[in-house]
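As a next step, the fold was encoded as tokens, giving this record:
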Amino acid sequence: MDQRKMYWAIVKMAILLLVLASCEKEVVQTNDSQPIAKEQPDTLRMIKLGKKLENPYSVKNMRKAYANLLKKQGESQKNYGSQTLKDSSEITTTDYYVKFWVENDEQKQLLLADSLNLSEIPLDVEIKEEGDYYVDENTEILEAQWLYASVLKDYKVPNGISYEKVEDLFLVEPSNIDADEDGQDDSKTTTIAGKTGISKEFLFDLEDEALRLTGNYEESANSYQEKSKKTPQGYVKVYNTVTKKMDPVVGVKVKTRRWFTWAKG
């Protein structure tokens, strides 16, 4: 009789231990799953592109703009005080709009070493929504990508990098020089397409006319002096967790793009 009682006592004890172990296991599983439920969703936003824009800086459109500007100049009898282009045939290619097929970081660094301003986004499309990153849906290879840039017409592409020329450009400002707030050029004339002493004011008027012609004109600077000194301005701030305030970041340079030319400030 005592042996039977002892036997059943051992059985009950074993069952109790199994139940406790099972409960403990369930608690552990519940605790492990909590961090997953608390994960925050990705807050980065993808840049969304719109329609392809008509390029005001193509040689073809610049020549059309030149014809329009001549008519307006005759009506207003505006005097630029310096040389202007004699006819539309003097509007020739200064730069190329190209896209590079970059297969790895080594190739990208070769292009950056040539001081090229590279963009993952095509330079002649509308940006419908600003964001933090861009994904080219036409790129099937994750390691490779198209990068877009404007280059001087005599630029030599590094060996091994494939590229396509998108369009011939006539740029009134050099594409290989970043406008900088610390290095303003106050001269009233410039050299363009092999022609020296050309009025900058005339070239800015030509640029504005090309923008109007292609439906891309936006009111900005009112005078030649304002346009020639226009550089991007702004600030970058970060949240200070100690002071609970937004603090400015000192020494940051911001680079901006306007079609095929870049500026920093």
Observations:
- The mean pLDDT is 79.
